[in-house]
Every structure is written in C-alpha cells, then in structure tokens.
C-alpha cells in the first residue's frame, strides 16, 4: 500500500512547474502526505524500514521549494512530517 501511495505522491509532485505550485502542494503535501503517507509511516515500527520509507518520501520533494527557506525552517505543510523525523 505504501508503494502505491508513494508512486501517486511522486507523480503529483512531478506536476510542479506545470500547474500552480499551491495546487501541487495542497494535493501532494496537505492531502497525500499528511493524510495517507504519514499515517502509514506512523504505523511502521522505528527502524531501517521506516528510515527507507522516509527517504523515499523526501526524494520526491522538488528542491526549488526549499531554496528560499531559512536554515532550520520548513514548509508549513511539512511540520507533521518533520515531527515524525525527529522522533
């Protein structure tokens, strides 16, 4: 189930630069990541499998979304995901 969600998430984020960034971030981050992928990650025991899943999620993010952010900050839609990474 995780791999299907990840593929959908990746495909949605590929639309960045083609459709409005707000729409891509809303669907990709607010909907898919925060509702479905994060739920799967929270139910995966800590360890190598969880780390691998998180790495695959991070690899999908467009780098340009992070270029103008200050050090130590993130996108508002990623706060829950960041909290998970810090656990």
TrEMBL record:
One of its GO terms (cellular component) is nucleus. Residues 1-17 form the signal peptide. InterPro entries: GCFC2-like. Keywords: Nucleus, Signal. Its main location: nucleus. GO terms for molecular function: DNA binding. It is found in: Nucleus. GO terms for biological process: mRNA splicing, via spliceosome. PANTHER family: GC-RICH SEQUENCE DNA-BINDING FACTOR (PTHR12214), INTRON LARGE COMPLEX COMPONENT GCFC2 (PTHR12214:SF4). This is GCFC2 factor. The lineage of its organism: Eukaryota, Metazoa, Chordata, Craniata, Vertebrata.
